Each structure stands twice: as structure tokens, then as C-alpha cells.
Amino acid sequence: MRTASIRAIVSVFGLSYEPVVRGLGADEDRLIDERHATILGACATWLRTLGWLVAAEVSYSEFGERGSVDLLAWHPASASLLVIEIKSELASLETTLRKLDEKVRLASRIARPFGWRPTSIGRLLVLPEDRTQRRRVAAHAAVLDQALPIRSSKLRAWCREPSGPIAGLLFLAETRGSPSTARGRRKRIRLCDVRSRSSGA
Predict the structure, then answer these.
(1) Which of 32, 45, 52, 81 is the most buried (most CB within 10 A)?
(2) Are the C-beta atoms of residues 34 and 187 closer than 8 Å to each other?
């Protein structure tokens, strides 16, 4: 079946079809993991500059639901908790949103060991800044615009001065510092897992 035909069929269900060539095996997994870690590190570094406390890869097991939060961020001044999902590529939209919903629902319990007691909980999906991911987000706009409506400058402004819950999507350049849509030289970032036990409230 032609690619165009497949896309026409799945588009009826609000889905997109992106053919992917596989075959690198362990090397491919390593590259994906490295990119994930780089984006995670860049996001953590940026949030710390804005006064957030950040914990990476926080595992949980609650009521038979298990997993890990890529980044759990706490803003002491506002008692805001941000649950962040990092994706090196947007593959299964349904799985991504379902797991993010789960983590947000359990966030208060997940944050309890850190002494963080939020008055509001936000969610953020972070993707790398590249054309492929922007194209995939555009293909799923009907769903993502409703599930994660806050983007760009409005999202960055909220992160500087959080107030109330938020649901947003951020394209993040794989470099150290603040989010940017500009293409820059890719730079490997040392990943630090900060697990502060201070409530800061």
C-alpha cells in the first residue's frame, strides 16, 4: 500500500503516519537515550536558573501504577509543582498523554518524600526543536491544542512566575540555557539529579 493511502486512512481517525527506518539496534537505543538525557539536562538547567528545584527520573509505585517522572520541578515561592515528560521524539501520542495524566494525578504522592506540598500542579511535554517533531505536533494539533494548549512565550513567562496550574508543550533546543527556537550547535550537557529534601515553602 502506498504511503499516501495509509496517511489518508489514518487521518480519518485523527492520526498521522510517519514511516521510520530502523536497524541500528543497540546503537540506535544509545543515540535515543543520549538525546533524551541531553534534552532533560537542558530543561533542568533552564528551570534551575528560574529558581526551581529539580529532581530527575523520580520513580513511583502507587496503587499498582508504576513508572518514573522524567523531571519533577518545585517552585518554592509559589508552591507550584511541575510534572515534565521529556520525549526525544513524539511516537505514540495516546501513550504519552495517558502516562502524563497518570503522573500528574499521582504527583502529590510522588513529591511527598521531598517534602513538597503543592498548591497547584502543572504538566509539561518537552520535545527537541526540530522540523520532524514540529511536523508531528502539527499533525496531532486537534488533540494537543486541547490537552497542552500553552506554548512559546506564554509558557516561558509562566515558568518565570508560576501561578496556578498549567498544561503546555515546549520545543527545547539541545543546548545549555533557556528555550530557544534558534538552531544552535549541539552541546552535551552533564546531567545532575538534584534531590533536595528542603520544602522551601
Answers:
(1) 81
(2) no
Alpha helices in 12-151 (DSSP H): 26-49, 93-105, 107-111, 131-139, 141-147
Pick the CATH number of 26-172 from 3.40.1350.10, 1.20.1260.10, 1.25.40.20, 3.20.20.80: 3.40.1350.10
Whole-model pTM: value is: 0.73
Beta-carbon count within 10 A of 67 CB: 15
Task: Give dist(CA 181, CA 85) in Å, integer.
Answer: 19
Q: Whole-number mean pLDDT of the chain?
A: 81
Task: Write out the three cell numbers for 80.
Answer: 507550584
| Type of residue numbered 151 | R
Closest CA to 181 of 163, 145, 155: 155
